[in-house]
Amino acid sequence: MGRYVVRRLVQMVPVFIGSTLLIFLMVNVMGDPIAGLCGDRQCDAATAAQLKKEFGLDQPVWQQYLTYMGNVFTGDFGTAFNGQEVTELMSTAFPVTIRLTVVAICFEVLIGITLGVVTGLRRGRPIDTGVLLLTLVVISVPTFVTGLLLQLLLGVERNWIRPSVSPEAPFGELIVPGLVLASVSLAYVTRLTRTSIAENRRSDYVRTAIAKGLPRHRVVTRHLLRNSLIPVVTFIGADIGFLMGGAIVTERIFNIHGVGYQLYQGILRQNTQTVVGFVTVLVLVFLLCNLVVDLLYAVLDPRIRYA
Amino acid sequence: MRGATNAGWAACAVAVALAATACGGGSDSGGDGRAVLSSSWTDPQNPLEPANTNEVQGGKVLSMIFRGLKQYDPKTGEAEDMVAERIETTDSQNYSVTIKDGWTFSNGEKVTAKSFVDAWNYGASLKNNQKNAYFFSYIEGYDKVHPAQGAQSAETMSGLKVTGERTFTVRLSQKFSSFPDTLGYNAFVPLPRAFYDDHDGWLAKPVGNGPYAVESYTKGSQMRLTKWDAYPGEDAAQNAGVTLKVYTDNNTAYTDLMAGNLDLVDDVPAQQLKNVANDLGDRYLNTPAGIIQTLAFPFYDRNWNKAGSVKVRKGLSRAINREQITDTIFQKTRTPATDWTSPVLGAEGGYKEGLCGEWCEYDADAAKKLIEEGGGLPGGQVKITYNADTGSHKLWVDAVCNSINNALDNDRACVGNPIGTFADFRSKSTTQKLSGPFRAGWQMDYPLTQNFLQPLYYTNASSNDGKWSNKEFDRLVDEANAETDPATAVEMFQKAEAVVRDNMAAIPLWYQNGSAGWSERLSNVALNPFSVPVYDQIKVG
């Protein structure tokens, strides 16, 4: 187990370097970031040159990348164009997005798995068909439609929630955005769980468990569900990274000042430091999530062992 | 009983969640209940230094916490004395400034002549990276502190001299009669010592001499400003304070206004313009701002700088149905342009309606004829370059092309050429890499005709991206700048503008309007010539 983890961690290094290099190059291809700083007017040459020097933009790209990575390993992610440290931006943005992700994952786990179990156990019944139809609708409607609709309905028409989330973004205000963010994944989780449960219901160990005379809920939760969760856990694990980076749409609709907002603004303003910094952290999150998922397999299914 | 406990826990979680949502909706509707109003904002692009703020959002804050020598009247755009007692000159080149007694910064420090001179020197100095440094370029010695190349050879401008506690003199490097009128711009405000002594601290919580003081500032999310009770000026705030809230999307801000969580939106999103009358009734304002959109041409490209090119440009101008585009695409939030300045200047300030004359009127037949006479479109097609990331540029460029195609009966006469980001678009246009007409927007720095002409059309001027050059125009501008009588100066500028028209150096499209919508709590909302709400005059309740 320990050796497996170490091996996986070592494997992360080339992935990490490769992905940060790619994003660094992509941001650089977009053109000269200084030109956008002066609005609809040309920056005077002297100031532009001075700014370029200050942000290290006068050096060749490979050198910029090396300097940048060197700084990253000492915890310095550089400075955004508005004079704020990128680490400072991260310290305000990540907690908000993590809260939003936690809410979304809670919805996925609570509602998604519950619905999946219910429909998986009652295959072909009206409730199964109903939920299946519902998930189809949710999957086919884009997030921004659900988001804007819920915002108008609950925020403006009914006044149950605030249409926008306050800067502090407490859990209470993140429930509706979290639900919107989770909606599509939630539908997938429901369908995955349903299929998995329906398949495993017919397996030998379930029959044995029933034959032993175990109570029904114990058969379902201990034996059936635990074994059926492997594909679901894989999906949710990958989804954590996806939700954190892919919340741009939801964060815009509900005015949440999280990672998506910073990334969006960073791209618009061609702020290399912000974009690369945030993406680097997101890459790390993805890698770690994948590792945790792989380790969870062993917990869920004792037959899987890592050496 | 394991299953039951689990189910119970889930039920609890849902109950808590619902309760929390309900709480979130009920409390706090717009401010603190006192006469504090909340207003939409976006994160300023640059640090909030006066000489480094070149966009509206940072300008909003500066206009609340600072007062300069002059202040522009929100209605007429005229520059009136604010901190200045008088600004005198005999030759349009040497000015002596006297400031009023009794002005202080909100931290108690006195506003003196030195507060101004130090601030201007800071703004001009190359090492401080101030993006508005060019504002000081008329002052003698600017080329020493901000050389075009190489290191600066002086710390301060030789043209600025403190002559007393409340007096200083300014010597310009050339005659510039309307110089005092430029002094209402944010770059010219005075700065307290704290700005230099504790720069980071000042940026975290700026201190100025305006009607409001910053109470708290959370970068990237909101700023609370409260009325400064000891404010010495006459335009003291009519409300207790303003909370600026950062919105990523102006649609969300508008929704928040509808839901009663926000009092003032100063940029009504294009998608909502159809609903505005229904939603807000008369709580909506749509007035011209000092912004004009034009199509500029690459004069460095031989194809656009031939003998017949003038006719081609004029033909293109006549092929654009401005009326129709501003009505359908912009829902009348743009006004078809008939000159190269802006209505906010007023007739006395140099705006001349209809100066463009027939050349800005839509006439398909005339357009066709002109372009034919001029030798046809270079390469048989015009490509209008624009940035696709912000604004609704794609919409109107497509509409303009449609209009041109219809007028010329040729489906391929005009196409749009989108560039991904604004920054990339700017870097291509400023380095002369574009080969056809391109979008050019101009937001004035100060309400003067000079500002709409010189930076854009003077030979090698800072924003003359198309590199248009005309001796006659340059001469007229120089003469106008030297003219001491404002009325005559305006006349000269209009003559220069006529040169721009006769050569169709750029096709004027439309004047942009500023818009604002507000809640029932507010009254007396107005926009200044820079389309920033005049916060201090807003009444709450």
List the helices and strands and how they pair.
The complex is a heterodimer of chains A (307) and B (541).
Chain A: H1 2-29, H2 45-54, H3 61-73, H4 86-121, H5 126-140, H6 143-157, H7 175-200, H8 204-211, H9 216-245, H10 248-253, H11 259-268, H12 272-300
Helix pairs in contact in A: 1-12, 4-5, 4-7, 4-9, 4-11, 4-12, 5-7, 6-7, 7-9, 8-9, 9-12, 11-12
Chain B: H1 2-26, E1 36-41, H2 56-65, E2 70-72, E3 79-81, E4 84-89, E5 94-99, H3 113-124, H4 142-145, E6 160-162, E7 167-171, H5 179-182, H6 193-197, H7 199-204, E8 212-218, E9 222-227, E10 241-246, H8 250-259, E11 264-265, H9 276-280, E12 284-296, H10 309-318, H11 322-328, E13 334-336, H12 346-349, H13 364-373, E14 382-387, H14 393-408, E15 414-419, H15 422-430, E16 438-443, H16 449-457, H17 471-482, H18 486-503, E17 506-518, E18 522-523, E19 539-540
Parallel strand pairs in B: 1-10, 14-15
Antiparallel strand pairs in B: 2-3, 4-5, 5-7, 6-7, 8-9, 9-10, 11-17, 12-16, 12-17, 13-17, 18-19
Helix pairs in contact in B: 10-13, 13-14, 16-17, 16-18, 17-18
Region (Disordered) (chain B): 33-54
InterPro entries (chain B): Peptide/Ni-bd, SBP_5, SBP_5_dom
Protein name (chain B): Peptide ABC transporter substrate-binding protein
- Mind telling me the CATH class of the largest domain in chain A? Mainly Alpha
Q: Write the CATH homologous superfamily of one domain in chain B.
A: Dipeptide-binding Protein, Domain 3
CATH architecture of the largest domain in chain A: Orthogonal Bundle
User: What composes the largest sheet of chain A?
Assistant: none
* CATH 2nd-level architecture of one domain in chain B: Roll
- Tell me the span between the first and last alpha carbons of chain B: 58 Å
* Average pLDDT level of chain B: 87
Cα Rg of chain A: 24 Å
Query: Which regions of chain B have little confidence, pLDDT < 50, spanning 5+ residues?
Result: 1-33
